[in-house]
Design goal:
Length: 246
């Protein structure tokens, strides 16, 4: 896996600093890998990442396309906090085979296996798209983008948000979506006959109902408006049927 970057956060205020910014409880790093996101004040997605402890420091494992922006945003929020943010040369390996010594379980879903932080990057050749599609797990830059709301993307199911941890950036909007509304849109698994490119519009009775994303075999991840979704949906020439995730 070569498309990840590791940011190292060090300093006396590191844990308190992150705790006030991200969607998950940073105290969970004492039990294992933490999956979380940084949001805008309006509750929209900026970046998703993993956090692990390395001694007194914290390592943030983020997609390389978001690393510079995340570092810049964290630096902006730092103000007078005693926190230093640097890029590390630590690499990430992942796999679903036997867990190597020192590896950490991916907290999003058991099928995603383990992640190992060290000198080597790569993976064991697992079919990651098949795993993601089967379990409706979004990917940075594909299903997850600037217009995403994390609850519509399934972050609660993926252990990426903690509603008991207290305030963080975007918390008010996220909590309101959790407690005061029923989600009317979101990522879900669909059956597909045929193929269509990522980001193809899904239509039903000539009306747009969503967007098609990652496909694997006869399944795909789609973003749907649940009130419009139903039978006889299509994405270009591909036929789409909605499944209800459990």
């Amino acid at each position: 896996m070569t498309n990840r970057r590791i940011l190292r956060l060090s300093g006396a205020d590191t844990r308190d600093f992150l705790q006030g910014l991200i969607t998950n409880d940073i105290c969970k790093v004492d039990q294992g890998l933490v999956y979380a996101a940084l949001l805008t004040p309006q509750g929209k997605y900026l970046a998703d990442f993993f956090v692990t402890a390395d001694g007194d420091d914290l390592l943030v494992d983020v997609d390389e396309s978001l690393a510079a922006g995340l570092a810049k945003r964290l630096t902006m929020y730092r103000l007078r906090a005693k926190v230093t943010i640097t890029e590390s040369d630590i690499a990430v390996r992942r796999g679903t085979t036997d867990t190597p010594e020192g590896a950490l379980q991916d907290p999003r879903h058991p099928d995603l296996g383990w992640r190992l932080y060290g000198p080597e990057a790569g993976d064991d050749g697992s079919d990651w798209d098949a795993i993601r599609v089967n379990n409706c797990i979004p990917q940075t830059g594909v299903e997850l983008g600037p217009d995403s709301y994390i609850l519509e993307a399934g972050f609660e199911r993926l252990n990426g948000v903690d509603f008991r941890k207290g305030c963080y950036v975007g918390q008010e909007v996220t909590a309101r979506m959790k407690h005061k509304t029923t989600l009317r849109k979101g990522l879900t698994t669909v059956s597909i006959e045929g193929t269509a490119p990522i980001n193809t519009e899904i239509r039903r009775a000539e009306k747009p109902v969503g967007t098609l994303f990652t496909q694997s075999g006869n399944q795909a991840i789609a973003y749907l408006r649940f009130d419009r979704a139903g039978e006889d949906m299509c994405a270009q020439d591909a036929q789409i049927q909605w499944q209800v995730n459990t």
